[in-house]
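PROTEIN DESIGN WORKSHEET
SECTION A - STRUCTURE
LENGTH: 136
TOKENS:
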């Protein structure tokens, strides 16, 4: 099976930002509004396969996305997370960092980075458009 984060079709649908080395996708199974995934474009399954420069670049992009989300949604906090390996709940074997804006009193269970419901297609399109604008 092709990696969903390397699939041109998924990238077209979910991409909100990219630079030379990273891709930012809107989560198809968002745990909350603004739930983004930042990943290296290079297909690697985990953090340990990345070089120092790649790690640095990845987290600079994480910071950039968090700054955009903070300005746009003004959340009370963020969860940043990486699931690596089956046992840790990694469902797509392409290294990615979850960024989940959090609001006081929201209902998301801690440590869970996606809902069980696939985002409705039209809502997904609206959200992707909304968040793409932050990077213009
Ligand atoms: Zn991949």
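SECTION B - SEQUENCE
RESIDUE ASSIGNMENT:
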């Amino acid at each position: 099976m092709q990696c969903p984060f390397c699939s041109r079709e998924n990238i077209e649908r979910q991409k909100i930002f990219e630079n030379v080395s990273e891709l930012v996708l809107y989560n198809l199974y968002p745990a909350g509004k603004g739930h983004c995934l930042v990943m290296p474009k290079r297909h690697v399954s985990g953090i340990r396969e990345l070089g120092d420069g790649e790690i640095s670049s990845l987290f600079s992009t994480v910071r950039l996305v968090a700054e955009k989300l903070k300005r746009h949604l003004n959340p009370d906090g963020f969860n940043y997370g990486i699931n690596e390996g089956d046992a840790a709940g990694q469902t797509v074997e392409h290294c990615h960092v979850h960024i989940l804006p959090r609001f006081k009193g929201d209902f998301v269970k801690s440590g869970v980075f996606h809902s069980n419901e696939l985002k409705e297609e039209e809502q997904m399109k609206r959200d992707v458009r909304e968040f793409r604008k932050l990077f213009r």
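SECTION C - NOTES
The CA atoms of residues 27 and 63 lie 17 Å apart.
The longest strand covers residues 97-102.
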